[in-house]
From TrEMBL:
PANTHER family: CEREVISIN-RELATED, PEPTIDASE S8
GO biological process: proteolysis
Organism: Neolewinella aquimaris
Pfam families cross-referenced by the UniProt entry: Peptidase_S8
GO molecular function per UniProt: serine-type endopeptidase activity
Active site: D229, H273, S445
Record key words, sorted: Hydrolase, Protease, Serine protease
Official protein name in the record: Peptidase S8/S53 domain-containing protein
Family: Belongs to the peptidase S8 family.
Amino acid sequence: MSRILTSLTLVCLFLTACEREDTPKTTATPTEYDRAELNALVEAHLQSTDKVFDWNQAPDEVVWSALSLSENEAVLGYQPAGFQDLDARIHEIDVNAGDWLQTRNELVSDLLAATERHTGEAITETDLFVAPEDGILPILDVKILHPEVLSEFRRRADVRYLEPSNYTAAEVQLRSGSGCSEAPADAIAAGDFTTVSPGAKVPWNYDYMNIQQAWTRTQGDNIGLCIIDSGTYPEQSELNGNFGNGRELSRLGVYQPSWWSSRTDGPDDRCGHGTQMAGLAAAPRTSSGSTVGVAYRSDLTAIRATSDVIINASKEKRGVKDALVIAGRDAGTQIVSMSIGDVFSSGTVKDGIRYAHNRGKLIFCAAGTSLSWTSWYGVIFPANMSETVAVTGIQSGSPIQRCNTCHDGSEVDFVAVMQRRNDDDRTSLTLSRSGAQPGYVGGSSAATATTAGIAALVWATDPGQSREQVLQRMKEAASIYPARDGDFGWGMVDADAATR
């Protein structure tokens, strides 16, 4: 039979294999799919299930094909055999001692031996490892060089997941675009902002969430927001010297652009998206004429973890995980905002999310933004996780209608107005690369950063609150609560009501 399978046939094979995980595996060399076939399988899965693609639910031949097409780079999550409830305890473990260290050492030794046994060639730990371990989370970035090594280790009791870390399905992912934008708008419509003292611009859509009314009692003081994205531009003075007012600003970089180097390229934005999101959430209220952020007196940590909005390369997954660990360990951070994601799940990022969540952080994630003709995708990863709060963008007016490029679905928790109903190009406003002239920005990304800012306003009314208390106040002030919509969650948060 021809190996040029239709998308429907491919996804049927995928789903059938998922249902038959207990079927004994053969030792024959598995079928390998080329890139076009594998991407067709992913596309068909997304269309038929409306769910992100999870490598751990895929059969060996699919995973091996992806490894073969991405320099054999894999990520292995481990735990001592029999360890219980790691998702809830991942922030408590010590990978450098006891059963954890023993399990790690046994896995490395066995991987080296299995690779030599199946390939006929001996390798060293230097050859095996793709990236150094962080000493905090139980993750190994390694090379898997033979399909039988993959099959053997996927079924071990001490292996939580073993998945491709660097496979990018360009035909699928690039439809969303990179999200990069740095230039100010040529002109801003007069109706798209109001001016407040001492001369700051308030984006038009803030009125739908009653944000200015909430400012009469809270501006986010003493609450730490962490934006995990593409960094911030050093040229944007509002996120540098003008940030001020006794607030704390940290600009960090954990993204490693080169596979052959462990060096990061610093905190500076090279995309624009991170600057835009930081501006929406926490830009200061100044006399420069630039836009003001929702929580304009909150503290800000802006971490460059990705090159753009898609968490697809292994270096981006590691960057996001490292940023989540930083946020999780920082006592001054209460809220994390991630307007980034992918149609593939990632064990690396999941571990980072759970680490930060278990340490009390309230994590907001974008539900997804795509070109209008591919926005049939459901909620993307990691917004689809139970540990995150998923946000999407809607248009102004009634009834509720998602923005033209926004994703929706059952995992969505909140929405925010991001787009004029009769003009797709008139979205929210935020900081540009430099200067005071703002730029337009929309999608679920902007909705997420805006809602994270509202959370900071709510938390600042009583800094001793728990994450759960803040989230409950937001729910009770949302437009659909106590009902929950199948696509738009609790609805849009009224910041004025939530902060009372």
